[in-house]
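Reviewer 2 asked us to include a model.

Predict the structure of this chain.
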Amino acid sequence: MSTSCVHLVGAGPGDPELLTLKAARLLRQAEVVVYDRLVSEEILDLVPRGAVRLYVGKASGCHPVPQKDINSLLVDVARSGKRVVRLKGGDPFVFGRGSEEALYLARHGIPFEVVPGVTAASGCSASANIPLTHRGIATGVRFVTGHCRENGELDLDWDGMADPSTTLVIYMGLANLSLIGAKLAAAGLAGDTPVAAIAEGTTARQKVCVATLADMAERVAAAGLEAPVLIVVGHVVKLATVLSKAAPAKDRLGLEERVVAV
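Predicted model (structure tokens):
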């Protein structure tokens, strides 16, 4: 039996209507789907009933299937000759370890294709009516991860990140929110800089907590937000209030933004 191509597919932040046409087609044709924790049930409903589903999800401090085992699994299922989709939340190449898996596949002679997805930064911020850039307010945007491999020290470019003219988007930063706030403040970012924490963005369960850098950890904790949470730091957050008043209702899934702390 010939070796099949592994499609590294981005599932986006949760809303199935944000899937690319190519991603949706590949899911409907899949015979084996290897998927992560953050892939929504609505998206998994697109997988054919007869397809094999292999869950390899990870949570903070809980990695039941190590990455090296996932890599080996992808090689094994590809060599079975079946149509394989490796389904990842967001975009495979944005904090998704997609490049690690692609490198492993390449080293073992397995063909692969990367199908990009809407990353959480753009999907969740848009769903919360927060522009990542805006003329005269934010001239750039920066994506960082809020946790380190094997719970190591969070060693980031704090001075470079404390730029009031840049929007800072923090993935997977909920557990380190107090540390992140303190480090950014120590690097010179003003305590009244607006912050938004977006939980389960783009889904019917979306919640948004608006705060400032000085009190974000306390207010997010009080709001009871649970992962997955995306943190947006910057003056663009203030525009969400104006835009939300003018934006049409999100009616596809009864989706309604809930601002739980202002």
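The longest strand covers residues 140-145. Residues 120-261 form a domain with the Methyltransferase, Cobalt-precorrin-4 Transmethylase; Domain 2 fold (CATH 3.30.950.10). We have added this to the supplementary material.
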